[in-house]
């Protein structure tokens, strides 16, 4: 379904990003698997993928202008992209209302740098690139937190950052539709990744969180990967701009 397409996946070394990178490679894409520090994780994502279709790319999204530099290198290595999956994000279990001022400032700055500033810089670079190429697919991995907030107020900064980037993605969807740029927002619920397992510990354990979920289980990362691959295929262009909820009916708008 993705034969001949070249796609950049940010945060491909673990969790949802790793699963997405594996899935789209399995569907024939040439994958630029971005990682921050965990090269081994990115290598694991591309394990078994022919070398000509697996490109590992390091980039520090926590650094100012790190996103722009990484995107430019991706273009230099590939000659051009057909799609981008804006997935990389951080969640800190600190920076809540009652935390000290310096901790609040540090957590919000770090969270917004990766989840909003770097993600939006990549979004901007992708739009400019795709306009020159006559179009492209953008998938932004959001969260149900962008719609409903979070149950743990210590992660208030994460919820705010996801809401901000969702609005940026929606703006691109409407503003550049006639340039052939299609933008899809995937909003997972509680996905079975380390980030969610850490979150569950903050809530009293995995069983506590699962008891709240309609299906009684975390969302498999493979569900997010399969949906992402479909969006990248361009087979349903008029889905552009939609926020796609993947939470097992635990949150229905």
From TrEMBL:
Pfam families: adh_short. Signal peptide: none annotated. InterPro entries: KR_dom (IPR057326), NAD(P)-bd_dom_sf (IPR036291), SDR_fam (IPR002347). SMART domains: PKS_KR (SM00822). It is an enzyme of class 1 (oxidoreductase). SUPFAM superfamilies: NAD(P)-binding Rossmann-fold domains. GO terms for molecular function: 3-oxoacyl-[acyl-carrier-protein] reductase (NADPH) activity. Keywords: Oxidoreductase, Plasmid. Residues 5-194 form the Ketoreductase domain. Its EC number is 1.1.1.100. This is 3-ketoacyl-ACP reductase. CDD domains: SDR_c (cd05233). The keyword Cell division does not apply. It comes from the Bacteria. Belongs to the short-chain dehydrogenases/reductases (SDR) family.
